[in-house]
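Researcher: Quick sanity check before group meeting.
Model: Go ahead. Protein one:
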Amino acid sequence: MKTPKAESSPDLHSSLVQNLGLAIAEGTLTPHSILRLDELETQYSVSRSVVREATRVLSSKGMLESRRRLGTVVQPEESWNAYDPQVIRWRLASSKRLEQLRALNELRGAVEPQAARLAAERASWDTGSDLVSQAARLWAAGQRGNQDEFLRLDIEFHAAVLRASGNVMFSQLHNLVTEVLTGRTEHGLMPHLPHHEALQLHADVANAIQRGEASAAHAAMKRIVEQSTEEMGDIWAGHRDGAPGAAPGTHRGDPSSPSATVG
């Protein structure tokens, strides 16, 4: 007698996509291993339609590939869509968290300072004024220690700078910046109270864009990303050296330490 399968539903589908995505990102499901759909049905107590839809979604992200006469094959990391927000999220939730954060910071360093430069050259006075107002609200949230509000405003600020660049390719990268800022917070790599210099640098970016000072906007944004990269370097070194409490996804110091920076 067959084990009854749970009815297909969006929740079951989302849960299976999440479980398989995390397992692939972590390496629990190893590259080139073959997934049997009937085994997934039994293991997760879901219908065949749920399994097929979940594997279709993961195939669209480059994490799985269906091969005739062989089955559904787990793909190596180089085949994944590295810009997919869910793939980024899964990597941040895995033991490869620091590698993912470092890669995202390096991408930010290549894009965001140039976006700030272009924004200073192209944005209207009103757009610049809006950025100044956003930076002020960000500062206030940081001073209050409201981490949730600060994260929301920080994401909005960086997305607004990318949009203000006038480059649609840069603007489309806002999801990547969102994932790195969110990931740092969710995994305890953000201070409870932002460092004063970081808050000042966000204000400097906004003021430089408003005044049309391209070099100053570039320099201030470059320093924001550099601070984030430096902190990641400290965490990475602690993990590499086996320092106590420096496992992936943890901060060796007090998360509220004023020496920690924000992006």
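Researcher: Fine. The other one?
Model: Protein two, sequence then structure:
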Amino acid sequence: MLSLTDRDAVTAALTDTTLDPTLRALIGLRVWQVDTDRQRPLGEILQIIVIHPGDPPEIIHEAVGFPICWDQAEQPGWEWFNDHGSWFELAYILTDDFGMLVFVADHPDTNDTLRFNCLGYANRPLTTD
């Protein structure tokens, strides 16, 4: 689990070679797109949460601020969703000037319900065996 709420944390994530390169590129792109007012702290406009395989639901819910891992989770619906192959991206607009991006690993060890919900929205071509 990663929670990125300031520029130092983003820089640390972007330079962490143990993180997936696709994830680092996505984080860098989104921060570049959103962080246009360098006078404001990044944490006033954006929070980025990264959910890794094996992260327990309680920790995920605490980081996000509401439950997103249960079948009938009481949550605000995401504003938009992107399937990046190995990562799902959920964007939540929480106020007029604050949003949260949640990156979810598409991995068998990721929380089953959360991954299932993401796969249900992903527009992936059917595969034949």
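Researcher: One line on it for the slide.
Model: Residues 21-34 form the longest helix (14 residues).
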